[in-house]
Amino acid sequence: MSRLHRSVLRILVADIVGGRLPRGSRLPTENEIAQRFRVSRGVARETLRSLEERGLVTVRHGIGATVRPSADWDSFSVDVIEAMLEHQGGAKLLGDYLECRRLLEIEAAGLAARRATRDDLMALSAALDRMTSAAVEAPGSPSAEVRFHEADVAFHRALIQATGNQALGRMTEPVHRALAAARRPLARPEHRLERSLPEHREILAAVAARDGERAREAMGAHLLTVERYLAEYAAGGAAEPEQERAS
User: Fold this and answer.
1) Were both Cys, which of 65, 87, 95, 111 would link to 27 (CB 3.0–4.6 Å)?
2) d(C-alpha 15, C-alpha 22), whole Å
3) Are residues 141 and 114 in the same domain?
4) CA end-to-end span of the chain, whole Å?
């Protein structure tokens, strides 16, 4: 996706999600988009196609693009997620993702405790080591935030991998990807040393001990912490935009 395409797409997604282009309204034509944003008709055409792929519009020959109901939008699309977080409904969307995660990952932790191989445990341990290093080396720095986030995602993906269930991996990947795009409101870097890291250590310890019930409880406790952060965000206590991802 070109930079021009991405720029025009983000603006139009924001217009739709923000209600400036409500359900049933017509989008500008290819020519109008090209003129408004000073791009080629090819870029305008690709933008409309991208909006259609994300479920935001229906494109019909001779009629143009019409905004679809919000229930049809692809809530796993990064562009849609980012726009929704800027408008009403962001907290509800995050709550939906976390609910999906609770339904899938708590049982996954129990399966991982039964099935994890030595390589799986090494992958979990390595990810946790990277999380710890990023949390203590340079707290709050942009590069440390990126490293912590990447290691955190790697830990949860390694846990799913340890279940040995490929279908579960396919199911959880969109949820992880969506939360990765939407983690700023849940960021609490100041609590990592006393909350996030100990919670991840307990998950790993339970899996390594082959204790399925303990692993499920540890994952449940960790997700409860993240859900509390969401409650703070919904109540108006969200983290500042420059703070990065924390769970």
Assistant:
1) 65
2) 8
3) yes
4) 29
Looking at residue 177, its pLDDT comes to 79
Domain boundary among 41, 72, 103: 72
pTM value is 0.80
Range of the domain at 193: 89-234
Which residue, among 187, 194, 160, has the nearest Cα to 247 in the 3D structure?
Answer: 187
Q: What is the pLDDT of residue 92?
A: 83
CA dihedral 238, 241, 245, 247 (to 10 degrees): 0
pLDDT on residue 61: 84
Amino acid letter, residue 78:
V
Q: Is residue 171 over pLDDT 60?
A: yes
DSSP 154-209: HHHHHHHHHTT-HHHHHHHHHHHHHHHHT-GGG--GGGIIIIIHHHHHHHHHHHHT
d(CA 96, CA 151): 23
Residue 147 shares a structural domain with residue 52? no
Distances (CA, A) of 68 to 52, 81, 227: 9, 16, 30
239 in any annotated domain: no
What is the band of 218 on the pLDDT scale with cuts at 50, 70, 90?
very high
At residue 215 the predicted structure's pLDDT band, cuts being 50, 70 and 90, is: very high
List the CATH number of the domain containing 196.
1.20.120.530
